[in-house]
Design a protein that fits this description.
This protein is α+β, with helices and mostly antiparallel strands. The chain is 33% helix and 20% strand. It contains 15 helices and 18 strands. Helix 3 runs parallel beside helix 11, helix 8 (290-301) packs across helix 10 and helix 12 packs antiparallel against helix 13 (459-476). The longest helix has 21 residues, at 371-391. It starts with 20 loop residues before the first helix and ends in a 14-residue tail after the last helix. It binds flavin-adenine dinucleotide. Residues 12, 81-82, 126-134, 137-138, 153, 173, 195-197, 201-202, 204-206, 208-209, 211-212, 214, 260-261, 265-266, 383, 484-486, 521, 524 line the site of flavin-adenine dinucleotide.
Amino acid sequence: MGFMPVRSWWGWGTIENRVTGSEKTQLLGRVTQFLDGNELREHLPPPVDSLGMSPSRITPPAALAHLASSDPHDRAGHAHGKAFRDVVRNLRGHVKSAPDLIVRPECEADVLRVLDWCSDSSITVIPYGGGSSVVGGVEARFDDDRLVISLDLERLNKVIEVDQKSRAARIQGGVLGPHLSDQLRAHDLTLRHFPQSFEFSSLGGWLATRAGGHYATGPTHIDDFVESLRVVTPTGITESRRLPGSGAGPSHDRLFLGSEGTLGIITEAWMRLQKRPTFRAGASVSFTDFMAATEAVRAISQSGLNPSNCRLLDPMEAFINAGSTAAGGVLVLGFESHDHPQDARLARALELCADFGAEVQPMKSDGPATSADTWKSSFLRMPYQRDVMAAHSIIAETFESACTWDRWPEFYHAVTKSANDAMSELGILGVVTCRFTHVYPDGPAPYFGVYAAGQWDSLLGQWDHIKSAVSEALIKSGGTITHHHAVGRDHRPGYDQQRSNLFASSLRAVKSTLDPAGILNPSVLIDL
Ligand SMILES: Cc1cc2nc3c(=O)[nH]c(=O)nc-3n(C[C@H](O)[C@H](O)[C@H](O)COP(=O)(O)OP(=O)(O)OC[C@H]3O[C@@H](n4cnc5c(N)ncnc54)[C@H](O)[C@@H]3O)c2cc1C
C-alpha cells in the first residue's frame, strides 16, 4: 500500500501539508509587522473524542448499511465547510451540527435508494462533494433537532467516457480536481478549471455552486464548460441531451447549475474539454496608481485579447502575497494556447498597460522569481496559512463580488470603507486587500481579503460584525453577494435582497416538484 495523506478534520487539506517550521515563523513575522498587538498564542485543535458529539440517531436500512459511517472523526469532518468561521469553530470544539451519518454511494442506483429511504423517513440530506464550501453550504445548521445525513459522493469519481472528436467527456460528480486531471491527462485533455480549492473540491460541487476557475477572462465559470447534466432527484432522474448549443426553451442545465444541492444530486456531467496548452507568454506589470491599474485591466478586458490570467493585486495584496512594493499594485498577466504562440497578444496587452503608466517585468523560467512566481506559489499555500493565522487569533478571511465598470471606483471605496469602519468600531487593527479574480468586458469580479488582530474569545463575533458590514455595502453599491463562492446559509440574507420575489416563488415551485418532502439541503437558497 502506498502512502495515504490524512485529511484534517478541522482545517484545510492534509495533516502532512500543514504549515510548520520556518514557513510558520516567517508567516507570523510578516503578519505581525502590520498587526502589532495580536495575542499570537496558538490554539490547537481539540481531540475529536472531547467534542461531546451526541451519538448518531439513525440506523440505515440493511441494504445501505455498508455505505454508512457514524465514526466520530468522519462526522466531525463533515460538520462544517472550510471557511474561516468553520475553522475557528472547529478549533474551539464547537461542533454542534455534525450529521448523524455519512453515506457514500458507490453508484447512481445507491443514490436513488438513499433518496427514497430519506424521503420516506423524513431524513434531511446534505449533498457533499469536497466539503470546501465557505458559505455554510454543507452544514446541518437547523434550529430543530431533525435527523441529518451527509451524502458524500467521493466514490462517484470516474471519467466514464471520452469523445475525442467533440473533445468532451462524461464524468461522475464526486471526482476531486487532481484525480480528474490525472484521468484526463491520459487522453491529453484538460477541463482547465482551477479554483483555488482545486485539490479538495469536486466536479459536482463546482457545478452545484457555479464555481469560478482561476482563468481571468473568457470561459471562467464552470457553466461555460457544461455540455449536459444528469441529476438524481427524489422524484426521479433528469438528463439533458448533449449539444454544442441549443435554443430549445429555457436551459435544463442552468436550472441545476448553482442549485447547491437543493434540487437533486448531480451524478454525471458531459464536460467540454481542451487540449493541454503548450504555448505560453506572461509578464508581471507594476503600477504607480491602483485606479489607473484597474483602467488598464478594463482596456484589456474590452480588447478581445482574452488573457488566461489577468489578476490585478492591489498594493497591500501585492505586498503580502507577492512580495512587491509597487505603489499601485501588480498585474499578473498570462496567455496560453495549445495551437499558436502568444507573444503578439502579450505585446499588445503590455502596450495597453503602458498607456496607464505600467512598468513591465517579463516572466522567465530560469531567471529570478518575479512577483507572478511568488504569488502563484503562495496561492496554493494560502488556505493552509489561513488556518495558522486563525489558530493565532488573526482574522484572515475573504469575500468576493462583481459589479459593472461604471460602478467600480465608488464600489471599491464603499466596500473597503465599510470593512475599515467595522474594524474601527471593534477597536481592532487590520487591513483590507483587493485583487481581481476575474474580469469581464462589462465589469470586474473583485476579491477582498481582511487580515485583523482579533481576540480569541470574541473572534467569531468580530468576523461576523465585519462580514455583515461588507455584505450590506456590497448589495447597496450594486454588486452581487457572491460572484463564485455561492449562497449557502451564510449569504441567504444578501441573496434574498438581490433576487426578485417572483423568481424566488418560481424556484420554490420547482423544488416542490423535484423534492416534495423537502429533504434536500433545506434553508440553502430557498425555503419550501
Ligand atoms: C481555500 C478555498 C479556496 C476556494 N477557492 C475557490 C475558487 O477559486 N473558486 C470558487 O468558485 N470557489 C472557491 N472556493 C469555494 C468552494 O471550493 C467552491 O464552492 C466549490 O465549488 C465547492 O466544491 P465542493 O466539491 O467542495 O462542494 P461542497 O463544499 O461539498 O458543496 C458545496 C455545495 O454544493 C452541493 N453539492 C456538492 N456536490 C454536489 C452534487 N454532486 N450534486 C448536487 N449538489 C452538490 C452541496 O450540498 C453544497 O451546497 C474556495 C474554498 C476554499 C476553502
